[in-house]
Amino acid sequence: MKSLENIIGVDLGGTNIRTGKVAEEKIIQLTKEPTPAAGSQSEVLEKLIALIDSCFDDNTKSIGIGVPSVVDVEKGIVYDVVNIPSWKIVPLKDILESRYKVPVYVNNDANCFALGEKYYGKARDCKSIVGLTIGTGMGSGLIFNGKLYEGKNCCAGEFGNIPYLNSNFERYCSGQFFSEEKSISAIDAFNQAVLGDQAAIQLFSEYGFHMGQAIKSILYAYDPEIIILGGSLTKAYEYFKPAMFEAIQNFDYRNVLTNLKIEISELENSAIYGAAALYLNSSQH
């Protein structure tokens, strides 16, 4: 049987490398292997290539890769990849295009999250989108006029680094709020909240207040149609949602709040879909 025209999406992380073949808006093949994160640059690259080889075929139109790092998007060079110490400067686009002879796109993983929602998730009908990932850290991707906006240096929309209180939004709007400010892990706080522990529930109310302040900053700066939340902390959304929405009620422009949509991502394997969507976002598509 002839294989379908497809795009390969790669989620390159410090723990696992996951590769998916995407065709007709579905992942039709999925592979995963542990990342040899302590290995040399070439060892990590060999593992990545082996996984891409397992999915690549004659009908593969493009390869997209999401990485937790700063990226020179035009040249496809990744810098200082999180939790992979040997990957200081890697010209990933050139290496892979030389091997596979198809267009290769490399971008930050948070940008890929936003693109995945645009092309495969809840933001399909939206042109102005902020994708916000909240887990161990806080990442974001921006889409305007239907296209990804990275800025000159792939740093646009780094809301987590905006100064806030005695630190920045990332410290108060990610798992760091629990571990650094409250000396408890986010998962332990969540498990206690599920059991009805009032102190844990109050922690999530505090967290929701800080998320509300971050949301207001995003609204003042970008005024998107929709904000989509992803990441591990969204499992606790019901516990911080009320305080978050209460905190944004003093936003100056009431019509913005009336029209605003905040949604939780339900896209399984969103990182792979987002990496594949780098091709759909490109001028070559």
Report on this structure:
Strands 3-2-1-4-8 form a five-stranded mixed sheet. A five-stranded mixed sheet has the order 11-10-9-14-15. α3 (109-120) crosses α10 and α7 crosses α8 (237-247). The protein has two domains: 6-112 and 269-281, Nucleotidyltransferase, domain 5 (2-Layer Sandwich); 124-264, 2-Layer Sandwich (Nucleotidyltransferase, domain 5). The protein is α/β, with parallel strands linked by helices and 285 residues long. The protein contains ten helices and 15 strands. It starts with 5 loop residues before the first strand and ends with a helix. The chain has helices at 41-55, 92-100, 109-120, 169-173, 176-181, 186-194, 198-222, 237-247, 254-259, 270-281; strands spanning 6-12, 16-23, 26-34, 60-67, 70-72, 77-79, 89-91, 104-108, 129-134, 138-144, 147-149, 163-164, 167-168, 226-230, 261-264. The longest helix is centred in the C-terminal third of the chain and has 25 residues, at 198-222.
